[in-house]
Amino acid sequence: MSDTVGQPAQGNSSGRSPSRVRLPAKAPTLKNGLKSVGKFLWQNKSFTLGLTLVTIAIVCAVFAPWVAPHDPLHQDVKNRVAPPFWVGGEKYRTEYVLGTDYVGRDSLSRIIFGIRTSLIISIAAVALAITIGVLIGLLSGFSSPGLLDSILMRITDIQLAFPFIVLALCVLTLVTPEPAIIIVVLSLAAWPMYARVIRSIIITEKEADYVTAARVQGASAARLVFNYIARNAIPPVFIVATIDIATMCVFEALLSFIQLGVQPPGISLGNIMADGKNYIAMAWWITALPGFAILFTVLGFNLVGDALQKYIDPKLRR
Questions:
Q1: C-alpha R_g of the chain
Q2: Measured between alpha carbons, how far is 56 from 65 in angstroms, rounded to an integer?
Q3: 134 φ, ψ to 5°?
Q4: Where does residue 200 rank: exposed (0-12), middle (13-18), buried (19+ CB within 10 A)?
Q5: How many angstroms from the chain centroid is the CA of residue 8?
Q6: Among candidates 198, 199, 203, 296, which has minimal Cα distance to 241?
Q7: How far is it, in rounded angstroms, from Cα 205 to Cα 196?
Q8: Which residues lie below 8 Å from residue 56, measured CB to CB, with a gap of 6+?
Q9: 219 lies in some domain
């Protein structure tokens, strides 16, 4: 027979049958990627709500000078204590959407700049706390059991037992409460949690088979920590950090409310609320609206942190 099945076709130098040639896989399109993201967001509604609230807060923080409709320090005495649009009617619908405070400053603009201050201080405090806590957790966990581990953990226990508000009062009444000082004080309240989390992960993972194999191959202690163990330690840190940002927002607002945080003319959600406490009977919005801003910001970060925990921890997935 002259026509043999499986003979290579003319011009095919590789000798392969045309039926065996595989076409390259179709690359994922932008449409399919957006569809997958949309499906994920639809299936995780709490994460979507939290991400929306966090995005709004971040946009206000980053673009505050362009988003705010007025100068937050400008005083319009003629329109002092102007109510929000749903209380005051058409007169204030476009000019002062959320009303003004007792000296005529626009409430919406001050809230936007207050969110900016709260997020900057909170994120910086959490970043500093992560740096301190992770360093102590690594040293303690890798040296456990030992003298260094005992010393570091006793320091951590003392810090955990020390009430935050007492620490803040002791420090901020002795020095000028500038943003850098506030960041340090807030980080002192947060780093022990990261030290505990990292230490427990290090103690568990350093006895794992893959770490033992790397140690047998001659890997140094630094390589074991940063190239192997740190991969399992980083995800829980992200979860704790997301929730801690929300906690720091509350603490920062509390310090500013009792006049131990951001000082005027600096703008914080806490000192905005403090400005309106004497007018709460006649102008409740001066205090209430910044409180709602704190509520929604904290809720957003907590929802995102809870969703990340369910995604990272297989035991919590359904």
A1: 28
A2: 15
A3: -65, -40
A4: middle
A5: 61
A6: 198
A7: 14
A8: 296, 300
A9: yes
Structure tokens at 191: 């780093």
Whether residue 304 lies inside any domain: the answer is: yes
Instruction: Give me the count of residues in the chain.
Output: 318
Q: Residue 72's closest CA among 291, 251, 272?
A: 272
315 C-beta neighbours (distance < 10 Å), count: 5
- Residue 123 has a pLDDT of 93
The percentage of residues in the chain with a pLDDT greater than 70, rounded to a whole number, is: 81
Report the amino acid identity of residue 51: L
> Could you give phi then psi for residue 100, rounded to 5 degrees?
-130, 170
Q: Give the tens place of pLDDT for each residue, 101-146.
A: 888 899 999 999 999 999 999 999 999 999 998 888 888 887 777 7
Q: CB neighbours of 62 closer than 8 A, spacing ≥ 6?
A: 116
Interior angle at CA 206, CA 205 and CA 207, nearest 5: 90
Q: How far apart are CA 261 and CA 270, in angstroms?
A: 8
Measure the CA–CA gap between 241 and 55, rounded to whole angstroms: 17
DSSP 75-89: --GGGTTPPPHHHHG
Domain that holds residue 137: 44-316
CATH code of residue 176: 1.10.3720.10
Residue 106, number of CB atoms within 10 A of its CB? 26
pTM for the full model?
A: 0.80
What gap in Å lies between CA 180 and CA 108, rounded to an integer?
26
How far apart, in Å, are the Cα atoms of 265 and each of 27, 73, 165, 186? 55, 8, 24, 21
Q: Is the pLDDT of residue 243 over 90?
A: no
Q: Which two tokens stand for residue 100?
A: 């003004």
Q: What is the dihedral of CA 209, 212, 216, 221, to 10 degrees?
A: 150
Residue 226 falls inside a structural domain: yes
Q: 3-class SS at 100?
A: strand
Question: Structural domain tally of the chain?
Answer: 1
Q: Please indicate, yes or no, if residue 4 is contained in any of the structural domains.
A: no
